[in-house]
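tokens incoming
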């Protein structure tokens, strides 16, 4: 189920962020820079719980977002990673 765009934008304008995360084999991570997110989480300041977003929720706003932080960590044969996205300055 989609989350209303105004709810997401409200959280982002108050300093919130969207976090995407993935996991792929460490061999694949070494061979390709392509990363396909498995999940999307909206973190809102002052809220006790995060909101799970769909692929469609994220892509509806993707052009208004910018990457702030990227991380990866290899554990055994699996590479885990993620990106923190925030609202691009002047996009709203």
């Amino acid at each position: 189920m989609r989350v209303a765009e105004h709810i997401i934008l409200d959280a982002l304008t108050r300093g919130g962020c969207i976090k995407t995360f993935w996991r792929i084999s460490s061999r694949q991570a070494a061979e390709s820079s392509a990363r396909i997110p498995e999940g999307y989480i909206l973190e809102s300041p002052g809220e006790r719980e995060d909101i799970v977003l769909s692929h469609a929720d994220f892509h509806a706003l993707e052009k208004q977002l910018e990457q702030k932080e990227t991380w990866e960590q290899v554990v055994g044969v699996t590479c885990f990673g993620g990106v923190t996205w925030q609202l691009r300055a002047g996009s709203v």
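note: Strands lie at 17-25, 39-43, 51-53, 65-75, 78-87.
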